[in-house]
Each structure stands twice: as structure tokens, then as C-alpha cells.
Amino acid sequence: MTKRATQSSALVWLFVTALGCGGGDAAHGAPSSAGAPSGSSAADGSATASSAASVAAQASATQAPEDPDAPFEVIDLHVDTPYEVHMKNRPVSLPEGHATPDALRAGHYVGIVYPLYIADYMNHDHPRVADAEALLGTIDRILAAHPDLLHREGAGSAAPVTAYLSIEGGGAFAEDVTAIDRFIARGVRLVGLVHAHDSPLATSATGKDRKRGLSDQGKELGRRVYAAGALVDVSHMSDASFADVVPLAKAAGAPIVATHSNARAVAKHKRNLTDEQLRAIAASGGVAGLNFHGPYLRTAGKAKLADVVVHAKHMIEVAGIEHVAIGSDFDGGNPPKGLGDASKLPDLAQALLAAGLSRADVRKIFSGNARRVLAWQPAAPPR
After folding, report:
1. What global pTM score does this model have?
2. Distance between CA 375 and CA 327 in Å, rounded?
């Protein structure tokens, strides 16, 4: 490499660091030092982390002061609006629910992940790939109804909110694991292998057989997802299934993502993440999206916005600020008092600030960390 090329690479890396893209290589999902599992070797990159901190400090010194009045933009990793339209006949105009056009605008949304939720009960408890195709058609109808608000990733539209795609309940792909390729080619960025019940691919956190993890077919699908440039979503997985994803993600150099899961140490629900799992997510460079569904926020009594703050602070303490995001579960859960729909995200931002987080920290949680993982691509094979 020439001296000029070396200087150019350093400048690019400085720019990425200054944007707050987090520890590790955002393009390839390299691990961050924050939240590394206990027992890690001291050689896990302390010198690199020190160098990165120095460069980041130099970059921040040259940045213009942040506008204190600038809104906190939101990228939400899980909003179940397509399910409401597809299965409950909500009009595509979205006149009701947690994520109406007006609510998205008031909440300063710039990105939203719409899941293709392939319910376990479809086709008499035998969901098919064709069900995913139908759901994709529903999302296309939603987007077509709101061209001034929503646009598909890569569409080049001036609409303010980018709609990303995920699959929730991927057991249908046991029918044909190769079919996942065409969904990823059409924009799917995240793939959950299981939902409320065990699937042929994986066991569920709320299933009957939580001791078994991924099946051989599930591992095959996971490897295929990573190779095609998408990510496995570990929300809804049993602990055993989660553990089986970790080596698959490591082999692919991919971040582990839990799109909508909270901290089990705060609310003891099997859908939430253990501290060990939060550390594994951090070590991979991944994120966990704060879920606003009441039963995942507290085990007794009515959940409040303050409960989200408690989960956020615990997850930051365990995993690091680079590894917490928003995964509201709007239109799929029961949000807490004070956070009833997407328009209330500015209130959550203010609550996090009041709890001691900086504006830069809130921006990472609200959009920066999600943007990093959604931009992940597998490393190019060596020539």
C-alpha cells in the first residue's frame, strides 16, 4: 500500500469513528471491546481500543457543537404494522394503531423495520414460504399508500422514513431453506428462525423444548442468511438456540441482533436476555432493541416509561452504549404508560437524558447503533 493510500485509509477510519459507529468494524461486524464477556483475554484489543479512543478524541475536538434543539431521530428495529394490515384487516392508510403516519412524524422516525410475521398457526399450524410472499405483498401495499412518508431501503426516494424488512417466525423456510435467498435479495435484512412455538429450525423461548437449540437445518439456514448479507435475529429464541447462533455469527464475522428483547435481570421473563447473552451481543458488535411490551418490562403491575429507562441503563451497564437500540414491538405488544405510540419517543429521550445519559448516547440508542448493524455486509472473500 502506498503512503497516500495509507493516509487515505486513516482519514476514512477517522471519519467513521467520528460518526459514532461504535467499537469494531461497522462494515464487517467486528467485535467491540465494550461489554466483552468476563474471562476474555487481555489481548482482545486493548492497544487497538486505546488507539481508537485517541483518534475519537481528536475527531470530537474538531466537530462542531451539537445543536441542543435537534430532534432525536429514531430507527425502530421491530414494528408489527404489516401483521395488523395482513391478518386483522387494518386499512393500508394506517388510521389507527401505535405507528400511524402522524405518530411516526411526531416521533422523528427515519427508519422502521417491518417484519414479515409468519405466524405459527398459518395453514393449520404449517406456515409456508408462500405466506411470506403474501406478507411481502402487504408491505408493498403499505408503502405504495404512503409515498410521501415511507420508502424501501435503496429506493432513492425523498420520503423521510426508510422501511427495512425482516422475517419473524422463519419456521416456514424449513420447507425450502434456499428460498431465503430471494427474500434477502428483495431487501430482508434480519431473519428470526422461530416465534412463540418451536419450529423445525429452532426452539423458542416460549416453546416446550427449550433445551434443544438449532436443528441442523436451522444452522444451515443461519449460515445461508449470513452468506447472503443478512443477519439472524435472536429475539424469541430459547437460550439453547441463542447459544447455537453465537459460533455461526462468529464464523461469519457478523453482529448478533436481538431486535426486540429486554434484560432478564430486570424483568424475569424468558423472552428477555440474560447478562451473558447481552455480553455475547456486545462482543459481536451487535445490538439489543429495547422492547416496549409491558410484560417484558416488569413482571408485576402496569409498566411505565420509567421501566424502559431501567432496562436501558442495565443493558448499557452490561453491554455498553454501542449495543442498545430501539425495538418497540409497536402494533404487536402493549406499550407502557407514557409511551403509548411512536409519537412519544421524544418523551423517552428526555427521560434518558434525565437519567444521566448524554445526547450523544441517546442518539446511539435511537438510531446510530441500529444504523450500524443494518449496514452490515459480509467481508469479501480474499482474492
Report:
1. 0.83
2. 17
Distance CA 191, CA 228 (A): 11
Q: Which long-range contacts (CB under 8 A, 24 or more apart) does 10-18 make?
A: 13/55, 14/55, 14/58, 14/59, 15/59, 17/52, 17/55, 17/56, 17/59, 18/56, 18/59, 18/60, 18/62, 18/63
What is the tens place of the pLDDT at every residue in 255-289? 999 999 999 999 999 999 999 999 999 999 999 99
CB-hemisphere CA count at 13 Å for 304? Answer: 4
Domains, the chain: 75-374 (3.20.20.140)
pLDDT tens by residue, 279-328: 999 999 999 999 999 999 999 989 999 999 999 999 999 999 999 999 99
Helix axes 129-145, 81-88, angle to 10 degrees: 110
d(CA 226, CA 373): 13
